[in-house]
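Cross-check.
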Amino acid sequence: MAENPHVKQVRFVKSAVHPSDFPDLEGMPELAVAGRSNVGKSSLINGLVNRRRLAKVSNTPGRTQLLNFFVVNEAFSLCDLPGYGYAKVPLVMKRQWGPMIERYLEGRDTLRGLLLLMDARREPGEWETGLIGWCSEHGIAVIPVVTKIDKLVPSKRMPALAAVGRPLGLPAKQLVGWSAPNGDGLEDLWGRVVRVLGLDVDGSD
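Predicted model, tokenized:
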């Protein structure tokens, strides 16, 4: 796993279900991470914050079933959301997010951005397009990340980004191509996180 030189410190805060249990981080800007089950969410989190096992990587899709909160560089918080697609979650936007997720998205005042993860080998569907629309309506910036690009030969990567972006109405250049094993896309992704959260380039507030 590639090292992220911008991250000096990261700590787990807590897991939560209800808003009353969400951590009070005194206005610290927050970044959420969302994606279908088995899209590589845990691997991305570990790579982004420079920790090999901060988020547990599992071969069992849907392992994350709570909201897990972390603090990075004492400058911003990160919330790992449960992977969509576990336990036959309904497909309609307002119903597919369980009440726990919906309450988080609607009520977390410090939420500034959301990393939306999508597999390079699959086109996004109603869930992804609906989530982007919802975030746009609520003023939450979306950083679209295409994971597992290392599964494709180099000549297929840009066409894959274009194919993922097309249903979302986004050109390929607006998507971040990500590879967990070798860290491709790390600097691009970190730069976008910094801009969305209003941090200094080194990830400080």
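The chain is about 30% helix and 20% strand. The beta strands are 10-16, 30-35, 67-72, 76-80, 111-119, 141-147, 176-177. Passed to J.P. for a second look.
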